[in-house]
Amino acid sequence: MNTIGNDIRITLWGGSHGSHIGCVLEGVKGGLELDNDKITEEMSLRRPSPGIGTARMEKDEVLFLSGVTEGVTNGDPISIMIANNDTRSKDYEQFRHRPRPGHADFTAVIRNPNHDIRGGGMFSGRLTAPLVAAGTVCRLGLEAEGIDIGAFTRGIGEVIDPQERSIEECWDSRAFSSRACTKDLDDEMIETIMNASSEGDSLGGVVECHLENLPIGVGEPWFDSLDGELAKSMFSIPAMRAFEIGDGLLSSRSKGSEMNDPFTLAGNEVFTTTNHHGGVLGGRSSGMPLVFRCFLKPTPSISKTQCTVDLESLQDVQLQIEGRHDPCIVPRAVAVVEAMACHCIYDMMSRGGFLEN
Known about the structure:
Blueprint: E1 3-4, E2 9-14, E3 20-26, H1 36-46, E4 63-66, E5 68-69, E6 72-73, E7 78-83, H2 105-111, H3 128-144, E8 148-156, E9 159-160, H4 167-172, H5 183-198, E10 205-212, H6 226-235, E11 240-245, H7 256-259, E12 263-266, E13 269-272, E14 280-281, E15 284-285, E16 290-296, E17 306-310, E18 315-319, H8 330-351
Antiparallel strand pairs: 1-2, 2-3, 3-7, 4-7, 5-6, 8-9, 8-10, 10-16, 11-16, 12-13, 14-15, 17-18
């Protein structure tokens, strides 16, 4: 129910306000050296930044319970655990009977009246913390294969980055709390988030991800296509609402003569002179940079008064949400997009027999 992947599998467990959350990562071969500093860095990128993130501050220290011996994977399932320490459960009980508009509360309690409503329970974005931890293990595996990955904030609300970006610029975004690629865009995005927050509202946005040095042929036709599996991985992230690869929606408004990427030679290597296809042809990697975008909706928990239904009295009521919530989850989601992409690509490479280490 909460497992993703085929050869490399992640199974999530826990809830937002339980004592711990975590996952089991299966299928990683023994001998992969883990970098604790790298894991700490990736986890820090998912944590909220002051002013534009939730006031809930968790340390997110990653504990490996099994599968790792003296910092090296041993081939056993890797059990990952992260403590929840900064919880305020009293803010949530009303949502069992008065579900938040735009939130999973309604579908959760209708299907399971005993659902753990605290912090959203299993549906909470809090569960992306172990996903980042597991994804970082997969990232280290990809780096051992020479594969690079980076992501950045393409847009928040009406603030859109109009420039094409390189993977180096994706990495540069780590210096900015909004995960924009430049200081000017970072300032503008932060301002728009804080303006929405001051009005009791929230914002959505766009995350763009790049992967380079993928071998040609990763993925399968039809039902195990690389782009299809990536889309599934990205839609597992809370707040995801749309996914596009390469030129995406623009492709539907263009001609074949405009969108086809001509093949050419560089020595004995075949590549394309443009990359409208975003690095995937026929469900398989083409050898060109893999480029995709994730579109995330605004955080549903806002302090503006909203209309809902009291499920006990079956009456329309007004809802006032209190507690600590992100006015925009996009900056934190960049690290999650990277992590899920790392897992998906690592799994697909294992399925196709591309892993050497």
